Amino acid sequence: MELNGLRVSRETQERLRHFAALFQKWAKAINLVAPSTLEDLWDRHIADSSQVFQIHPQPISWVDLGSGGGFPGVITAIFLAELQDGWVHLVESNHKKAAFLRTALRETNARGSVHILRIEDAYPEMGECDAISARALADLDGLLGYSAPWMLGKENCRGFFHKGRDYLREIDKARGRWEFDLLEHKSAVEQESVILEVSNLRRLV
């Protein structure tokens, strides 16, 4: 099996398929993603989310903000299971979604844990990390605000944020309040989308 041109092992493939089955089951009861995107689960959500790990395939500590239906946090945790190292801290304040995330991590033997917290309260509980991810959560300015406790003044912590076709406007807005280094990774799934890799975050105002 391949995702975005990357060969995926049989074990990881089985974990991803089990996650997809769980997701479809739970999505009938709680709103994990927009219902209109459920039919395209593999490309729209799973393959898209896998790009974060493909960009940075290291056994590191992640914080996934607003994990919701598990994208990209659970997908990253599934890939880390193959490395048998690294960890994803999934931050989700909604108790029903958190219950799904815990079930998904447990049943796929993924390397992650769920923290039922508001994002603003998460840093004191989990401390430092190597990377932050978020998808469909907020504009870039808002994401940098959420990520600031982990990233400000810390050269080794990077943010990986999925963004759609309007991402250039979001970058311009964010540069009004922040300085940061930026890499744009073109999406292999959505033609006009990117994953923004942010590092060396500094606050302007």
Automatic annotation (TrEMBL):
Signal peptide: none annotated. This is Ribosomal RNA small subunit methyltransferase G. S-adenosyl-L-methionine binds at G66, F71, I119, E120, R135. GO terms for molecular function: methyltransferase activity. SUPFAM superfamilies: S-adenosyl-L-methionine-dependent methyltransferases. GO terms for biological process: methylation. Specifically methylates the N7 position of guanine in position 527 of 16S rRNA. InterPro entries: rRNA_ssu_MeTfrase_G, SAM-dependent_MTases_sf. It is an enzyme of class 2 (transferase). Transmembrane segments: none annotated. Belongs to the methyltransferase superfamily. RNA methyltransferase RsmG family. Keywords: Cytoplasm, Methyltransferase, rRNA processing, S-adenosyl-L-methionine, Transferase. The keyword Protein transport does not apply. It catalyses: guanosine(527) in 16S rRNA + S-adenosyl-L-methionine = N(7)-methylguanosine(527) in 16S rRNA + S-adenosyl-L-homocysteine. It is found in: Cytoplasm. Its EC number is 2.1.1.170. Pfam families: GidB. Its main location: cytoplasm.
